[in-house]
Amino acid sequence: MTFDLALAWAVFTALVAGATRGFSGFGGALIFVPLVSAVFGPKIAAPTLLVIDTALTLPFLVTAFRACVWRQVAPLAIGAVLTVPAGVALLQWLDPLALRWGFCILSLAMLALLVSGWRHSGRQHLPTTLGVGMLAGVLGGAAQMSGPPVVAYWLGSGQPSALVRANLFGFFALATLASGTAYLANGMITREVGLLSAILGPAYAIGLYAGNRAFRGASDDHFRRVAYAIIALAALSSLPLFDGLLGR
Which of 102, 163, 211, 239 is the most exposed place for a label (fewest CB within 10 A)? Predict the structure, then answer.
C-alpha cells in the first residue's frame, strides 16, 4: 500500500470511528486502532486516537458529566487507572499480531455474552466492578480498547441507553487521563503521532457530530443493536486475515 492510499484509508477509518463514538459513546477505538494499525502500526494508532479523541470529545463531557451516575463510573475508573500501565507495557513488548488476535477473541466473547440475553441483577458489587475496570484498563493501555468489558457490564444491567452512553463518556474521560500520562511517560506521543492526529482529526470530528445527531432519535433497542454491531465489526476488523488487502 502506498503512503497516499494508506492515509486515505486512515481518514475514512477516522470518519467511521468518530461517527461510532458520537452515537454510542464507545467503539471509536474498536474500529480505529485495528484498521489504522494495519497501515501505521499499533504504537502509532493507539496514541493518535488518544490525542484526537481527547481533544474532540471535550464538548460532549459537560453534558455527560451531569447525566452520568458517578457511583457507577468511579469504581470502574479506579480499576482502569490501576492497570493502564500494564496495558501500555503489553503494547510496547507484546507481538502486535498476538495483540490483534487477543482483541478479536475478547470482542467475540463479549458479543456472545450480550446476544445470549445475559443480564445481571443491576447491583454493582465492588469487587466485580473493580475487576471489570481493571480488565478495561489493560485493554485501554494496550490499544485504547477499554470499551467492550464496560459496555457488556452496563448493558447487561438493562440500564437505559442514555445513561449507559453518559456513563461511558465519563468513564473514558478518566481512563484517558491515565492512558495519556502513561503514553507521555513512555515517549509514545511523538512528532509522527502529532502529524497524523492533525490530518485525521477533522474526519473524526465530522463523524462525532454526525453520530451525536443520530443518537438523539434512537430508541434503547436501536442503541443496543448498534452496540452489538460495533463489537462485531471490531472483532472482524481485528482479524489479521485481511492484512493482505492492505498490502501488509
Answer: 239
